Amino acid sequence: MNTRILIADDEARIRKVMTLLLRDEGYEVKAVDNGASAVSEAAWFNPDVALLDQQMPDMTGMEALKQIKNRHPSTAVIIITAHGSISLAVNAIKEGAYDFIEKPFDNDQLLLTVRRALEYKNLSRKLSHLKKRLDETHSLGQIIGSSAKLQQVMAQVHKVAATSATVLILGESGVGKELIARSVHNFSPRADKQLITLNCGAIPLSLIESELFGHEKGAFTDAKEMRQGAFEQADGGTLFLDEIGELPPEAQVKLLRALENRTFTRVGGKKSIAVDIRIIAATNRNLEEKVRQGVFRLDLLYRLNVFTIQIPSLRERRDDIPLLIDYFIAKYNSILGVNVAGVTRQALNKLTQYEWPGNIRDLENAVQSAMILSQNGIIDVDQLPMRVKGYPMSIEAELLSENETNIIRKTHSTAEKHLIVETLKRYDYNRTLTAQALNISRKTLFNKMKKHGL
User: What is the DSSP string of 162-200?
Assistant: First the structure.
C-alpha cells in the first residue's frame, strides 16, 4: 500500500506545490482547501501523514487536528503555521501533532519533516507490535528476552519453582538476579505468601543478627519493642538473601545454624522459633574463590548451593537488547512524560555492540538518558551516552598515544566514572541508594567518587 499524505491549505498555490513535491517522492496525495474537508476526507483516505494549515476560514488546523487524532490516532499530523506563531505550534504539539513547519518553508525541510513523521509512525507501530509480543511470549514477570540462553534460565526457573529446594543465583551486577528470585517465588506454591528480601551487603555488622532473626524488647539500647526479623517475616513464604557473598564470617555461622533446621532465637530471647521458609540466595561474587580465601564458609556454600541458576551477562545475549530497549521505552514514556517511539537503526547498532559492564541496569539508565534528550520521538546516535556512542576523536587520539595498558585503564576509568555519575543523578545523589543500585558497598562508592573527583 502506498504511503498516503493528506494536505489541507486554503492557498491553491501552496497546495499545488506540496502536492507535486510529495507525488514526486512516490507518495499518494489528497489535497483539500479547508479543515472540515480534511476531517471528512481523512475518514476514508486514512492518511499516514496530514499536513494542516493553521489558518483556514471555516475550521482551523488546530480544530482539524483534534478531530483527526481523535478518529485516527495513528495519523502523524504536521501543522503549518505563519512565521512567528511558535506558541500556536507548541499548543498543537501538546494536542498531539507530531511537528510543525513555518511559512514560507523550504521544500527540503518539508520533505525531511514528512520523512521523520513517517519514521515515527512506523516505529510507533513496531513498538505497539513488540509490546504485544512481549506480553504474550517473551516476558517472565519483568524478565525480557527470547535468546536461547535466557530461555534456558526461564526453563530452570519453572522447574525449580515447583520444588522447595534452596536456590543460589549467580551473575554479574545488573543482570536481574532479584527478578529471577521473584519469578521463582511467584511460580512456586508459596506465591500467595511473603517474599522477604534482605540485602546482606547493605546492613551494618552490628545489626545483621537483628535483621535476620529479630530482637526482643530491651535486647539492646535502641530495642524499645519486640521486632521480627527476616526469617520470621518470611514464615510460610520465601526469604531472598541478596549479595550473600558480602555476609561477614561472624554472621555466616549463625545463618548456617538457622538454615540447618529452620529454627532461630531472637536477639535477647531464649525461645527457639521454628519457621517454614524457602531460601533463595544471590551473589555476583565467586563464592568458591572466597572459600579458598577463608572469608566464606564451605559448609554454608554447600547449604546454599542446592540448585544453581547462572544468569548470562547482557553481552552474552545481545539478541535480547532490542526487546529490552522497547520494554524500557514503553515503561518510561509515562514516567518521564515523553513520547518516544523507538531508536534509529544507527543508534540500535551502537546499543547492541556496546559491552554493557553494568548489564541490564546499565542499559536501562542509558535508555532513560537518551529518551530525555530525544527529538521528534526518536532516539538517534547523538542522544546516546558518550560511553556508548564513542568518545570524540581528541580523546581517542590521546588514548592512542599511550601504551596498551594505559589505554585499557583509562577507558575503563572513564566508563566507570560515567556510570557512577548517571546512577547518582538517577537517585538524586543519594549515596546509599546509588551504592545499592551499583551493587557495591557505600564505602567503595565513596572511594570511587573520590578517585574520580566527584
Answer: TS---EEEE--TTS-HHHHHHHHHHTSTTTTS-EEEEET
Q: Quick check: 335 and 291 in contact, CB under 8 A?
A: no
pLDDT of residue 128: 64
- What is the C-alpha to C-alpha distance for residues 57 and 120, in angstroms, rounded to an integer? 30
pLDDT number for residue 179: 92
Q: Could you tell me if 175 and 312 are in contact, meaning their C-beta atoms sit under 8 angstroms apart?
A: yes
Q: ∠ at Cα 356 (352, 360), nearest 5°?
A: 90
Residues linked to residue 280 through DSSP beta bridges, in sequence order? 167, 240
CA distance 310 to 332: 28
Could you say which DSSP state residue 54 is in?
S
How many CA atoms lie within 13 Å of 190's alpha carbon, on the beta-carbon side?
25
β partners of residue 279: 239
- Neighbour-count burial of 278, counting CB atoms closer than 10 A to its CB (0-12 exposed, 13-18 middle, 19+ buried): buried
Phi, psi of 242 (to 5 degrees): -80, 150
* C-alpha span between 183 and 117 (Å, rounded): 40
Give every CB contact of residue 217 below 8 A, 6+ residues apart in sequence.
223, 224, 225, 226, 268
Which regions in the chain score pLDDT beneath 70? 1, 83-86, 126-142, 391-413, 415
Q: What is the pLDDT of residue 266?
A: 94
Rounded CA-CA distance 215/209 in Å is 9
Which candidate, 223, 177, 175, 227, places its Cα nearest to that of 200? 177
Model pLDDT for residues 414-435, shown as the tens digit of each residue: 767 877 888 887 777 777 778 7
- Residue whose cell numbers read 511559512: 103
Q: Retrieve residue 75's grid coordinates.
A: 495519523
Q: Which three cell numbers, joined as nine digits, stand for 288? A: 568458591
Q: How many other CB atoms are there within 10 angstroms of residue 253's CB atom?
A: 12
Query: 144: closest CA among 154, 156, 129, 157?
Result: 154
By CB atoms closer than 10 A (0-12, 13-18, 19+), residue 293 is exposed
- Entry pTM: 0.60
What's the rounded Cα separation, in Å, for the pair 49 and 29? 10
Alpha-carbon gap, residue 376 to 380, rounded angstroms: 10
Which helix (H) or strand (E) element contains residue 112? helix 107-133
Q: What is the DSSP code string of 234-253?
A: TTTSEEEEETGGG--HHHHH
pLDDT of residue 4: 92
